[in-house]
């Protein structure tokens, strides 16, 4: 129907057109009908009432909260519990039914209330604990709270609740991770496992299960990216590649190799055709039944972008010599490895393996460039993993390893730029560009102390970026219309036949 | 649009059929109610165990020890520490060696962090005295001891890096009385003639404990 501002302008214009005789009365009426111009004043009045009501209820709410806070400790437990629960359910119920309202303003109000309800859930849990003098670990509360919010996010297919839940769970995860690090992961076998510590330990798998299906339910690329990143980042964090004893730089060769290779391989191999097109009744219920959302789309390109970002970082850091000097080859590598996340590594490696076998066996004629990209990425990951394993476990090769990683970095950068050029994808082109420039700049900053030389490099670099960037943008402009035209001629029948 | 008299002149293109604004489809209510019930269950799960302990548990009195008065965590709550919180007070008890002799790499620490331990407490000879007398630890065990006599109870603790925690370490109190009570406690514990500060707690059959109230000399605080 158009924005309200547009409708207001349209009403002014339509009045003018009618007065000037441009349109007839019937057409004017049709415009009024189509754009609901007569309801504009009512909408404004309603909004004013809503604002008044909102302001009033906020003030009343504040008054009630302060009253309760003043008498909180004197209240009997029963009343405390009743008050907390009724506030929580009240806000959520009003929020849900408002969010289902036809007016977009009230929908937004409802969504706001649902977010508030999710925050009240956490406050309620904390206050309940306080009422019974429970001083448990804070991260436990965060994890339970985040999971609670997640359930509601699934129910309502709500992106905002999903992201809130993600933030809470991530804080809970790091809290628990620090708790484990503090209590030394090496004592894990003696430790009594609480459910929260189990969640922390298996976050790499759980993050995938918690957020990836939600991303399809909400059609939210954001939630997918966050969930997938949380999965691989927690995998690296739980592997603790630099050491199984925190804060010492003793490295285990194969732990490092896994931490380097598994995340990008998993992300690159990610394939959701099974989720999207497989005939799974409960899944289709979750994904397809939402009445307001478009049909779900594939997040495979997003997963591959994440894989490339991970590779960019994983190639950039070891492309400097200091990284390899820091990695002291571990002679006493027979230290018993406790706390190695076996289950997560095995499960995720299994998924990765299956995905890669499927990728490499796919029909080479239909997607040739994709197959080539997969082979190149696979080879790069394998070379990187073997290099780091060799350096740490078999023989220290700092010079060679640095050279290999620089080579990989530039290969990746060039590949990205080539992809970006070929398909007019800005982000890929600029991503490759940034990677290459970052590397070149860090070379000159580490090895050169001559100010004049540095200034020259800056000037040349700046000029180069401007030139290449301008050229690329022109290239994209010449590329896009033709490809669009190409698509149009393929997809739509000629218009002349219809008329 | 069906009325012929309303049809516009052919030179001006007509609008497509006027449709009322589509009413957005709604979510089925169960997609809200099921998660809501789950969340309420989550909220109620927090006090479930302490509530159970309060209803079914046995009242036990524990001797407190002074804690750092500058504890930054002290807000609306009093941090409590007990004689049985300190490993050095439990070392001499029977059963301690079995508890420590579990597989750990680090021999220097007393108990591995996160390990659980059960402390058996015995009632004092005068159970009805006021202020009540503290129960004494008599034994330490790796597992929950079964078939204890009526005047004994096992309480479950968990080792941290320096102390053993029983879930009794925080006691929440009204903000307006916090300073008064904190002062009372610190005077009682550090004065010329230290007075006893004891806590009344409930301990369930599984060894879970909840704080109920505490006594500073003969003054009883209950929130």
What do the pLDDT scores of chain B average to?
77
Helix content of chain A: over 70%
- Structural class of chain A, by secondary structure, is mainly alpha
Strand order of the largest sheet of chain B: 3-1-9-10-11
Rg from alpha-carbon coordinates of chain B: 31 Å
Helix/sheet category of chain B: alpha+beta
Average pLDDT of chain A, rounded to a whole number, is 80
Describe the main β-sheet of chain B briefly. Answer: 5 strands, antiparallel
Distance between the termini of chain A: 28 Å
Oligomer: heterodimer
Number of strands of chain B: 11
If helices are DSSP runs of H or I spanning 4 or more residues, what is the number of helices of chain B? 4
What can be said about the biggest beta sheet of chain A? none
Distance between the termini of chain B: 75 Å
Q: C-alpha Rg of chain A, in Å?
A: 29 Å
How many strands of chain A?
Answer: 0
Low-confidence segments of chain B, given as residue ranges, are 1-10, 18-24, 69-74, 104-109
Name the shape of chain A in a single word: globular
Summarize the structure.
In chain A, 77% of the residues lie in helices and 0% in strands. By secondary structure, chain A is mainly α.
Layout of strands and helices, then pairs:
The complex is a heterodimer of chains A (499) and B (223).
Chain A: H1 4-20, H2 25-34, H3 40-71, H4 77-99, H5 104-131, H6 138-156, H7 159-182, H8 195-201, H9 203-218, H10 221-239, H11 253-269, H12 273-277, H13 281-288, H14 300-316, H15 321-326, H16 342-361, H17 368-394, H18 398-423, H19 426-447, H20 451-491
Chain B: H1 30-56, E1 58-65, E2 77-79, E3 81-82, H2 87-90, H3 96-100, E4 116-122, E5 136-141, E6 152-159, E7 164-165, E8 170-172, H4 175-190, E9 197-203, E10 209-216, E11 219-222
Antiparallel strand pairs in B: 1-3, 1-9, 2-8, 4-5, 4-6, 6-7, 9-10, 10-11
């Amino acid at each position: 129907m158009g924005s309200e501002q547009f409708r207001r302008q349209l009403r002014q214009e339509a009045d003018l057109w009618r007065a000037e005789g441009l349109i007839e009365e019937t057409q004017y009426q049709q415009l009024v009908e189509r754009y609901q111009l007569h309801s504009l004043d009512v909408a404004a009045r309603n909004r004013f009432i809503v604002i008044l009501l909102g302001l009033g209820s906020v003030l009343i709410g504040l008054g009630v909260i302060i009253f309760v806070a003043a008498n909180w400790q004197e209240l009997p437990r029963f009343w405390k519990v009743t008050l907390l629960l009724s506030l929580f359910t009240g806000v959520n119920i009003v929020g849900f039914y408002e969010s289902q309202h036809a007016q977009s303003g009230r929908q937004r109000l409802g969504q706001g209330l649902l977010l508030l309800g999710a925050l009240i859930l956490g406050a309620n849990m904390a206050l309940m604990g306080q009422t019974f003098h429970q001083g448990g670990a804070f991260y436990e509360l965060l994890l339970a709270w985040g999971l609670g919010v997640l359930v509601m996010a699934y129910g309502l297919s709500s992106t905002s609740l999903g992201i809130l839940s993600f933030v809470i769970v991530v804080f809970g995860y790091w809290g628990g991770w620090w708790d484990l690090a503090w209590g030394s992961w090496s004592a894990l076998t003696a430790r009594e496992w609480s459910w929260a510590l189990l969640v922390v330990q298996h976050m790499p798998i759980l993050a995938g299960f918690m957020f990836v299906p939600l991303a399809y339910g909400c059609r939210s690329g954001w939630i997918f990216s966050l969930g997938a990143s949380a999965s691989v980042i927690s995998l690296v964090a739980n592997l603790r590649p630099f050491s199984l004893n925190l804060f010492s730089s003793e490295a285990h060769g194969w732990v490092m190799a896994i931490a380097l290779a598994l995340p990008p391989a998993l992300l690159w191999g990610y394939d959701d055709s099974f989720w999207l097109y497989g005939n799974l009744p409960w899944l289709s219920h979750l994904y397809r039944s939402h009445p307001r959302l478009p049909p779900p789309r594939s997040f495979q390109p997003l997963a591959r972008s994440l894989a490339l970002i991970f590779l960019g970082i994983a190639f950039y850091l070891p492309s400097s010599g200091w990284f390899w000097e820091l990695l002291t080859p571990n002679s006493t590598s027979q230290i018993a490895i406790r706390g190695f996340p076996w289950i997560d590594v095995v499960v995720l490696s299994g998924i990765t393996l299956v995905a890669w076998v499927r990728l490499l066996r796919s029909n080479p004629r239909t997607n040739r460039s994709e197959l080539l990209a997969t082979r190149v990425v696979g080879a790069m990951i394998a070379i990187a993993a073997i290099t780091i394993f060799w350096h740490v476990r078999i023989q220290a090769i700092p010079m060679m390893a640095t050279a290999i990683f620089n080579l990989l970095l530039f290969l990746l950068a060039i590949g990205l730029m080539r992809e970006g050029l070929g398909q007019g994808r800005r982000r890929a082109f600029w991503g490759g560009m940034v990677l290459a420039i970052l590397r070149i700049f860090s070379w000159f900053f580490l090895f050169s102390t001559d100010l004049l030389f540095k200034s020259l490099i800056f000037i040349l670099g700046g000029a180069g970026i401007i030139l290449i960037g301008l050229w690329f943008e022109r290239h994209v402009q010449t590329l896009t219309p033709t490809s669009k035209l190409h698509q149009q001629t393929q997809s739509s029948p000629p218009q002349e036949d219809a008329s | 649009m069906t009325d012929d008299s309303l049809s516009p002149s052919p030179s001006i293109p007509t609008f497509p059929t006027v449709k009322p604004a589509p009413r957005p489809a709604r979510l089925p209510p169960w997609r809200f109610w099921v998660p809501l019930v789950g969340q309420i269950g989550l909220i109620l799960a927090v006090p479930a165990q302490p509530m159970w302990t309060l209803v079914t548990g046995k009242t036990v009195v524990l001797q407190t020890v002074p804690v750092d008065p500058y504890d930054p965590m002290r807000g609306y709550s009093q941090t409590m520490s007990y004689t049985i919180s300190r490993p050095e007070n439990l070392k001499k008890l029977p059963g301690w060696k079995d508890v420590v002799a579990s597989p750990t790499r680090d021999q220097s620490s007393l108990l591995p962090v996160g390990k659980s331990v059960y402390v058996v407490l015995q009632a004092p000879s005068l159970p009805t005295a006021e202020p009540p007398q503290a129960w004494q630890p008599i034994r330490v065990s790796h597992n929950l001891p079964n078939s204890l006599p009526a005047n004994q109870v096992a309480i479950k603790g968990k080792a941290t890096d320096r102390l053993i925690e029983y879930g009794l370490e925080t006691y929440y109190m009204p903000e307006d009385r916090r300073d008064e009570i904190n002062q009372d406690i610190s005077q009682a514990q550090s004065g010329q003639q230290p007075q006893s500060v004891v806590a009344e707690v409930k301990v369930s059959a599984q060894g879970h404990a909840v704080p109920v109230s505490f006594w500073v000399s003969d003054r009883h605080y209950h929130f």
